[in-house]
Design a protein that fits this description.
Chain A is built from no helices and 11 strands. In chain A, a hairpin with a 6-residue loop joins strand 9 and strand 10. With about 110 residues, chain A is mainly β. In chain B, the strands form 2 sheets. In chain B, strands 2, 4, 5, 6, 9, 10 and 11 form a 7-stranded mixed beta sheet that branches. A 4-stranded antiparallel beta sheet of chain B has the order 1-3-8-7, with no helix packed on it. In chain B, about 0% of the residues lie in helices and about 60% in strands. In chain B, strand 4 and strand 5 form a beta hairpin. Chain B is mostly beta strands and about 110 residues long. The mean pLDDT of chain B is about 90. Classes of the chains: A mainly beta (about 110), B mainly beta (about 110).
Chain lengths: ~110, ~110
């Protein structure tokens, strides 16, 4: 079993839709949770970051962590074509050096 | 200013050759990484250095040898290249502490072994 599981998609939605991207993880020691966005032919860049459980909002993006069910979510409101990218969830144990990534979900927003 | 840079961007080479990829970061971070991303976009850690010291060495063939001449540079040398080495290789540097954890990735080196 992979430490972090993520549906690779692809996921295609119309512009303006609400997008929900999800990951599950197996190690309850994970404490930091991140979403990276990777545009085609670019390196991943940090989009959202949360520590432990709870929600974090940044503009149209909301990251949610439920540690009881080991579930990580990213919601995108009013999705735009410029949101089309691969989204990777990632997590790390506090004090560790190794970031563990999900497989990435390829998202396309259709105008 | 480019935070994490890699050279070359593209590398096409024959099986059996030896090649190197270079990485530099100007962020002042102590920790740097090499990742391999396959065609399905799965990002897998290979090595990590902290202040020139190897701290992570995943199950990578010993044909791959990282070198860190100083904490701003982390290079990757690959001997006897194989078809399965074709992938995108990303360098990253890490900022951690004060309740935050961020990795900054380079633009990637696309390696194609023929």
């Amino acid at each position: 079993q992979k430490e972090v599981e993520q549906d690779p998609g692809p996921l295609s939605v119309p512009e303006g839709a609400i997008v929900s991207l999800n990951c599950t993880y197996s190690n309850s020691a994970f404490q930091y949770f991140m979403w990276y966005r990777q545009y085609s032919r670019k390196g991943p860049e940090l989009l959202m970051y949360t520590y432990s459980s709870g929600n974090k909002e940044d503009g149209r993006f909301t990251a949610q962590v439920d540690k009881s069910s080991k579930y990580i979510s990213l919601f995108i409101r009013d999705s735009q074509p410029s949101d089309s990218a691969t989204y990777l969830c990632a997590t790390i144990i506090q004090g560790a050096q190794k970031l563990v990534f999900g497989q990435g979900t390829r998202l396309t927003i259709n105008p | 200013d480019t935070a994490v840079s890699q050279t070359p961007k593209y590398l096409v080479t024959q099986m059996g050759n030896d090649k190197s990829i270079k990485c530099e970061q100007n962020l002042g971070h102590d920790t740097m990484y090499w990742y391999k991303q396959d065609s399905k976009k799965f990002l897998k850690i290979m090595f990590s250095y902290n202040n020139k010291e190897l701290i992570i060495n995943e199950t990578v063939p010993n044909r791959f040898s990282p070198k860190s001449p100083d904490k701003a540079h982390l290079n990757l040398h690959i001997n006897s290249l194989e078809l399965g080495d074709s992938a995108v290789y990303f360098c990253a540097s890490r900022s951690a502490g004060g309740g935050s954890e961020t990795q900054y990735f380079g633009p990637g080196t696309r390696l194609l072994v023929l």
